[in-house]
Write a structure and sequence with these properties.
The structure holds two protein chains of two kinds.
Chain A (H helix, E strand, L loop, with lengths): L1 H31 L6 H18 L4 H27 L4 H23 L9 H4 L1 E4 L2 E4 L1 H22 L1 H11 L1 H6 L4 H23 L9 H16 L4 H21 L5 H15 L12
Antiparallel strand pairs in A: 1-2
Chain B lengths: L9 H18 L3 H26 L7 H18 L4 H23 L4 H21 L1 H4 L11 E2 L7 E2 L4 H23 L1 H12 L1 H6 L4 H27 L9 H14 L4 H18 L3 H18 L3 H15 L1
Antiparallel strand pairs in B: 1-2
Helix pairs in contact in B: 1-7, 2-7, 2-10, 2-11, 2-12, 3-4, 3-10, 4-10, 7-10, 11-12, 11-13
The chains are: A mainly alpha, B mainly alpha.
Chain lengths: 289, 323
């Protein structure tokens, strides 16, 4: 029972990270109708920037997070202008190739800068182990969970109460109607892409004190986020969050009880099964964000 | 991705050029030049096999490196166990690659478009993970070194030594000519028109009685078989087989070649392979740097130059004709 709880806690924190990444992706799918294969690479870059700032340059953790998020913001703006905007009205093939190309560029730039050895950014908090009876938890796991939950609440507030947030929801429901009503769809897509890359980067920043980051982690993360997005139904934010937690927990249990080497296979199998048997996701029909 | 009208005589042009190239080793017998030529020939065959599924039928498979890697591993393992001749290796590698393709196609071809690409990506990563972790047989990340030389008969009789680059050059040249003819057979005539119809509009194609699934599977299996054969030839030449062979990097190289050259076109793909293989080898750039440049090129071509190099050439031709 203790060991089960231990896995469960690991699964919940992993799920929280997946949820952050998946939430960014599902926003993008909902608003811009674009599946971004470079999404996980922003997660990887977030992790590496933290390692670079916090471990190599010894800048305080909170300041490193802020700097990383600002860099992610700039990268998000560039990504929208260079990749998303020119391909938004093209077919899925062009979008796939363009975002895959971005993924190649980002992951290889990371290899050039930081090499292929996995890096870790242990903080004071991640090294503090809490004991709850027989269970031991790194206290950083609470940070991960709370940052994720606060981001969900903030995003939900943003999309429900601000003008641009409402425009995002409108664009996800019907892009053409938005154009007719004079909503600046280009600006909406710019904001969405930037928020999406920032969330992915934030996920990388908060999980790197616990897990290694390596240049190849990007494509695996993209697939996991995609799995959550597909499970939740394309463009459904609540569905994506719930699915990400389910995925995290299933993965943690699989790696604990079956095989840790094949942990990633579990999520790929889930993705393929969902795509084949429940293409609209586990929660029924497609809904907007 | 509009269909590019293929020049009727492009196959003769390409085979003519290849025959001209075949005299080259007799003139310049430098190992480095030969190595560049052999790599280029390998990529021509590999990219053409990828284009059969991605360019002709329009299903962007991201699992193509799996078949190449499988072919290479099978050959390395057979070499260690019994030392079979190279043609037998190719046959076994082809059959096993098609077998893997059949297994992959069971879930993947129930999906279409983008979902198909996700699924193949997931399957490719799964296969790579298995190869990496099945240390008992594949030696995992330690790679298999000293793959046995290719030979014409069992037990290393009539062996082609790794240093005999000219022999490898002609071997790849012959295989390429076979692949080009095969590609031509698939992309033209009734079969070619059917594939174009499926690529341009699946619903419309099925409404005129084309069994879409059958053609998709057919092209996927053929392209997987060819990729396996190429992997089987490549392993003895390069002598080391690593799990990297199954990685996305190889598939991304192919994607760059096919999309920059011009997908669905023989001239485009062959041109793209030459363009993207020769200069990185000549400049001896690191793989990471090479992939960054490929990525940038891909981005530029996909966002602003439709139909790739082939498209530019045909546009120029059109303008010349009009004036």
């Amino acid at each position: 029972m203790e060991i089960f709880l231990q896995y469960l806690i690991a699964g919940i924190t992993n799920g929280a990270t997946y949820a952050l990444v998946a939430l960014g992706l599902t926003l993008l799918v909902g608003v811009a109708r674009l599946v971004n294969f470079a999404h996980g690479d922003f997660f990887m870059l977030g992790g590496y920037l933290l390692v670079f700032l916090f471990v190599d340059k010894e800048i305080p953790y909170l300041l490193s997070i802020v700097i990383t998020l600002i860099v992610m913001l700039i990268l998000g703006l560039l990504f929208e202008r260079i990749v998303v905007h020119p391909t938004i009205n093209k077919t899925w093939r062009e979008q796939l190739v363009a975002t895959l190309a971005t993924s190649i560029i980002l992951s290889n730039v990371a290899i050039l800068f930081w090499g292929t050895t996995p890096r870790l950014a242990p903080t004071k908090l991640s090294l503090t182990i809490l004991r709850l009876g027989p269970i031991t938890i790194s206290s950083h796991r609470f940070v991960v969970f709370f940052v994720a939950v606060i981001s969900f609440i903030a995003l939900s507030f943003f999309t429900k109460n601000t003008k641009i947030g409402k425009a995002m929801r409108a664009a996800s429901q019907n892009r053409d109607a938005c154009l007719i009503y004079g909503i600046n769809v280009n600006f909406v897509s710019l904001v969405t892409v930037t928020i999406s890359t920032m969330m992915s980067g934030l996920a990388g920043v908060i999980i790197t004190p616990l897990y290694n980051v390596s240049p190849t982690v990007g494509s695996v993360m993209t697939l996991k986020a995609l799995t959550s997005v597909v499970m939740g139904g394309l463009g459904n934010t609540t569905g994506a969050i719930i699915s990400a937690f389910i995925l995290g927990i299933v993965e943690a249990l699989f790696s604990g009880y079956v095989s840790s080497q094949y942990q990633d296979v579990a999520s790929f199998v889930i993705m393929i099964l969902i795509l084949v048997f429940r293409p609209h996701g586990m929660f029924g029909k497609k809904v907007g964000i | 991705m509009k269909a590019i009208k293929e020049n009727k005589y492009s196959i003769f042009l390409i085979i003519g050029v290849l025959l001209l190239v075949s005299i080259l080793p007799l003139l310049v017998n430098l190992p480095f030049v030969l190595h560049v030529l052999i790599s280029t020939l390998m990529y021509i065959g590999f990219a053409l096999s990828y284009d059969i599924v991605t360019g002709q039928i329009g299903a962007v498979s991201l699992a193509h490196a799996s078949f190449f890697g499988l072919g290479a591993y099978v050959t390395a393992l057979i070499g260690k166990a019994i030392g079979a001749p190279f043609w037998l290796n190719i046959i076994i590698a082809t059959i096993l690659s098609i077998g893997l393709a059949i297994v992959m196609s069971l879930p993947a071809f129930r999906l279409s478009d983008l979902s198909f690409s996700f699924a193949t990506l997931g399957l490719a990563l799964t296969v790579q993970l298995v190869v990496k972790n099945w240390v008992k047989i594949t030696r995992g990340p330690m790679c298999i070194h000293n793959v046995s030389n290719s030979s014409l008969w069992f037990n290393g009789i009539l062996e082609i030594s790794r240093t005999n680059l000219i022999a490898y050059f002609y071997l790849f040249l012959m295989v390429d000519i076979v692949i080009i003819i095969l590609y031509r057979l698939i992309s033209t005539g009734r079969l070619g028109r059917t594939l174009t119809a499926v690529r341009n509009d699946e619903v419309l194609a099925s409404s005129v009685g084309i069994n879409i699934q059958r053609y998709k599977r057919l092209t996927f299996f053929i392209s997987a078989g060819i990729a396996g054969a190429i992997g089987s030839l490549w392993a003895p030449y390069i002598s080391v087989v690593c799990p990297d062979y199954l990685s996305m990097d190889y598939t991304l190289n192919l994607l760059a070649i096919v999309f920059i050259g011009g997908s669905g076109s023989l001239l485009g793909v062959v041109g793209g392979s030459i363009l993207l293989t020769v200069w990185p080898e000549l400049l001896r750039v690191t793989p990471a740097f090479r992939l960054i440049i490929y990525g940038l090129f891909l981005l530029i071509f996909v966002t602003s130059i439709p139909n790739g190099v082939k498209g530019i050439i045909s546009n120029v031709n059109k303008r010349l004709k009009i004036n």
